[in-house]
Every structure is written in C-alpha cells, then in structure tokens.
Input
Amino acid sequence: MVKLYDLSQPLNQDFPFWPLYPPFEVKYIKRKSEHGVNAQYIMTSNHIGTHLDAPRHFVTHGKTVDQIPLEQLYGTGVVVDVTEAGELGLITPEMVESKIDVKERDIIVFYTGWVKYAWYQPTADEEKYTLLHPGMGRDMVEWMIKKKIKWFGVDTPSPDHPMNLPLGRFLPRVADRVRRLSEQKFGGPEAIKKLFPEEDYQLMHNALFPYDIVHVEHIGGQIEELLNGRKAIRTTLGAFPWLFKGGEAAFCRVVAFVEE
Ligand SMILES: [Zn+2]
Output
C-alpha cells in the first residue's frame, strides 16, 4: 500500500506575499443566484504558496516550467530534519550527510521547522517566517551540483539565506534588523562579509539554475507527520506544477509516496 503525504501549504489571499511582489487576489466573478454558477477569478505572482521555481526565473534562456520533464520532478529522495540551523542559520551538507546517505540524482526536501510559523498554523508568526528563516550558502551549492540533485524543497520562503536576499540587503525597514541579527549570530560585520559576499546575491537561484537544479519554496502540509520524529527518511517524492508554457515558476502540489 502506498500512503500519500501532501507536503504543500494552503494558499489564498491571507498568504503573506514575498516582499516587493504583488499579493494573491481572488474574487467571485459569477454567483449562483445571478448567473446560475459560482466562478472565481485570481490575479497573482507565481512566487506565493507552494511553488516550483524554474531556471527561467534567473536565467534568460533557462528552461521554463513546461520544459522540465516529469521524470525530473518525480523520483526517490530524502526528507531530512535540519532544524538545528535555526533562526537565520546556515543549512550545511553535513547536517544532511550525518543523518542519511544521499545518492546521485536524489530529490531532497529540507525540514527546517520554519513551517511552524507559516500563516495557516496556530503558531503562525508572519515576520519570523518571512524575514528570519534559515538558508543555504556556497558549500550547499557545490554539494548539490556534485550530487546532481533533481530538485529540492524548503519549508521557508526561499532556500537563500536572508543576507543573500533583499531582506538583509536593501528592503526598507527590514534590512537593518536582519543584518544586525545576522551579525550577532555569526560574530560581526567581517564574518557577514565573508559568509555572504556581494556576488552571492540570490545564490541558490543564480548558481544552481544553470545546472537545471530547481527548487520548491513553501513546503509544508504533512511534513511533520511524514517525519514523525525521525531525523531523515528515504521515500518517493513528486512536485507537480501546472503545465505552464513559458512559465518562470508555477504553483505546485508536492507529494511523498510512502510504502507502508
Ligand atoms: Zn519563487
């Protein structure tokens, strides 16, 4: 028997949108009483809710959503607990390899614990979720290229560390605080300069998309139920975006298919 675990977050207008991006809008354009039918209309960016970023998001002639084969989006992989990274922490390859063996062409879903702060949770904390999540750096880029990872998912708004995003660099009202907290965490301005150099802006996007290593943001749903207290598991995973021709990203449903 295969049991399905939905690793997607719910999405509606209450989902906190990515800073500097437009919000998710939904409204009824037909009602049963007047038109004999209920129909909705949405207006949105692609970068909200559980979604797959395609290479085109950062590479001019990069693959679009429809050009990523289903075989890349589905397959075996690991789900791994990296909660030790914590607020504004760096997730490292060692955090994964110390818990489970990762094979070439695996899929990886990272559980940072940040989904606890997602908007739909009883423990929701919109600022912590969006601004202070853990992220990844250079060592992870090199490791993922070596492992030829098919795709990876994170239960945060981005796999990039906030210091490599607008959040820690220039977002008004926010950047100073993110920088100050990061300096506290890593030991001052010099450490920050070394860990997050100018050229590493949006590193996990810019450095991996040329290799067609794509990622899913805002993983959630039953991820905690799936791990069930274990630090890592091997299972079958799939990310299923709509067949968006020319799309630089697309909403997707992420599913773990577990033999039980
Ligand atoms: Zn995105």
About this structure: The radius of gyration is 18 Å.
